[in-house]
Design a protein that fits this description.
Elements (H helix, E strand, L loop, with lengths): L17 H5 L9 E12 L10 E13 L5
Antiparallel strand pairs: 1-2
Amino acid sequence: MDGAAPHIDVRAVHVNDAQSLHELDNSFDTDRIYTLRVQWTVRQGDGNPGMVDKPAWAFELIETGRRAATL
C-alpha cells in the first residue's frame, strides 16, 4: 500500500448477500481474542463551502486476550 488509508464503503447486509456470506472462508483458528471497536463521528466542513459535514466510521480490532491452548 502507498500509506494512504483505504476507502471502505459500509452498508447494511441484504438478503441477496446470503450466498456470498455463506462462501466466506472461516476455516482458520486463532488463540487471540479481539474486540471490535466502532466509532461514529461527524466530520466538520471547516467552513469550506464545498465541504459538507459527513458521517465517518472508524473500526478497530483490539486484542483483549488469548485463549488457552487446547490439546
